[in-house]
């Protein structure tokens, strides 16, 4: 299962392979901000607390938008990172503002 924590809503949802974290949150009515969906605004930024190995590798947009230190700590962009395998994952929406 994937545990998604939005600003107020927290939900355990079944993984759907190949879709983004943001898509998964939206499909399950978890309140997850977004705007551009292209990897530039960072409103969808999130912290992967557990199970980052079940997500896609950071793409170019994430590397451009996030600091290397942030990525090392497990921060990703919800609109860019995809669910790639089934396993326990915990992700918290952590926008800058
Ligand atoms: S929605 Fe803008 S970076 Fe993800």
From TrEMBL:
SUPFAM superfamilies: 2Fe-2S ferredoxin-like. Coiled coil: none annotated. It comes from the Bacteria. GO terms for molecular function: iron-sulfur cluster binding. CDD domains: fer2. Residues 1-97 form the 2Fe-2S ferredoxin-type domain. InterPro entries: 2Fe-2S_ferredoxin-like_sf (IPR036010), 2Fe-2S_ferredoxin-type (IPR001041), Beta-grasp_dom_sf (IPR012675). This is Ferredoxin. The lineage of its organism: Bacteria, Bacillati, Bacillota, Bacilli, Bacillales.
């Amino acid at each position: 299962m994937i545990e998604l924590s939005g600003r107020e809503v927290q939900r355990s949802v079944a993984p759907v392979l190949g879709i983004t974290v943001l898509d998964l949150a939206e499909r399950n009515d978890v309140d997850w901000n977004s705007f551009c969906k292209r990897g530039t605004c960072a409103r969808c930024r999130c912290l992967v607390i557990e199970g980052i190995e079940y997500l896609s590798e950071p793409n170019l947009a994430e590397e451009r938008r996030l600091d290397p230190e942030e990525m090392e700590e497990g921060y990703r962009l919800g609109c860019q990172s995809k669910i790639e395998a089934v396993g326990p994952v915990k992700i918290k929406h952590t926008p800058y503002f």
